[in-house]
């Protein structure tokens, strides 16, 4: 479409209007103006990223079921072995034999795809079973599954914020993009409170009359720093001001609590949260997202949430695999214990080696580099010379100046893997002149 640039009366505002039909064609031929060079625009935008050192290169890896965290990487036509140190398959459930067996069986019995949206022929019995399992996991009446955790957050928050009359949404400063997008899309009034700061949340909540609908959105585990929200304090404040609570437990489900329901389970707070959101893609090792809450809430979201209504449901094989993974993790707390031990050991070993670990209280082991170019260099050398794969994390995932390597040790990373990682990192640190910990 050809857009005409018009000046409004006061000459301050530029107004765009789309001419139509013959008028547009005429203009195109007579104006002598140049149309936009779209390819140049794309290339220039990419050039900006390269200049800043944060142009993203995807590592082309082949995961090997049965050998995780070992994998094969394809680079410049060459194939080599790597140990993956940055996977969100935190417990290696993506290769669990019972999960694979369930997936195979469901594919053989139901086929590849679901065949429709949930409303029109796409509700498979595995979806129903999975939602029952998730509701039980979180001690809620109902659960609702989505194609991804991102879609679950987007749909739930945008629908709540758009439909609750005059709703105000209070959002933690470090919330994940999927929550931010949902809140923006809802067009509700938005207030951002300081990260993990219950006092700041209270200050903001106190500005609104009690009867006004308020939604407070935050995460349990923040995945780039590895810190945890003061959930109980948040709940107390929300109760006081009549706010509903929405927690993203994406980096905690499968990993914390006696049955793997997350931090709220560990802290005995599940019944104080209105909506618990999670993913099936990280700790559970498959793909998909969900929310759990009251029967009325889930029925509401099922009926009004566009990201739920208008999208084909997940393949039955995926639902069956997720179901098997959740059931397995409910009964295998020893895997969570081993996971925590591995993370604590890696933090201790980095610290002993003079590599400064950011202050994480979870399974996430972030090591700050503070420079996008150096961070990428460190990652490249680790991959090329040492067979270690850890992706550089840069803006917009984290703030500029806090670029980091984010290690995620799993129960399957051995002591020998850690020996190799620590000695390699020490060499790379001296190669790049990175400062050892004080
Ligand atoms: C990864 C992530 C999501 C999105 O989940 P997917 O299932 O990967 O789409 C949501 N919230 C947080 C905090 C995440 O890190």
Protein traits:
globular, alpha/beta, 15 helices, single chain, binds pyridoxal-5'-phosphate, 4-stranded mixed beta sheet, disordered N terminus, 438 residues
Molecular structure report:
The chain is an alpha/beta fold and 438 residues long. It has helices spanning 21-30, 38-52, 97-110, 125-138, 149-163, 177-186, 198-205, 231-241, 263-266, 295-304, 306-309, 316-330, 333-352, 372-386, 415-432; strands spanning 4-7, 14-17, 60-63, 70-75, 78-84, 142-146, 168-172, 189-193, 214-219, 244-248, 275-279, 289-293, 365-368, 388-389, 392-393, 404-407. A 7-stranded mixed beta sheet has the order 6-12-11-10-9-7-8, with helices on both faces. Helix 3 packs antiparallel against helix 12 and helix 4 (125-138) runs parallel beside helix 12 (316-330). The chain is globular. The protein starts with a strand and ends in a 6-residue tail after the last helix. The model is unreliable at 1-17 (pLDDT under 50). Pyridoxal-5'-phosphate is lined by residues 148-150, 153, 176, 178, 219, 223, 248, 250-251, 279, 281, 289.
Number of strand segments = 16
Low-confidence stretches: 1-17
What small molecules are bound in this structure? pyridoxal-5'-phosphate
| Count of separate DSSP helical elements | 15
Q: Give the helix proportion (percent range).
A: 40-55%
Assembly of the depicted chains? single chain
Strand order of the largest sheet: 6-12-11-10-9-7-8
What is the CA-atom radius of gyration, in angstroms?
A: 24 Å
User: What is the molecular shape?
Assistant: globular
Average of per-residue pLDDT values: 93
Estimated structural class: alpha/beta
Instruction: Quote the distance from N terminus to C terminus.
Output: 59 Å
User: What percent of residues are in strands?
Assistant: 15-25%
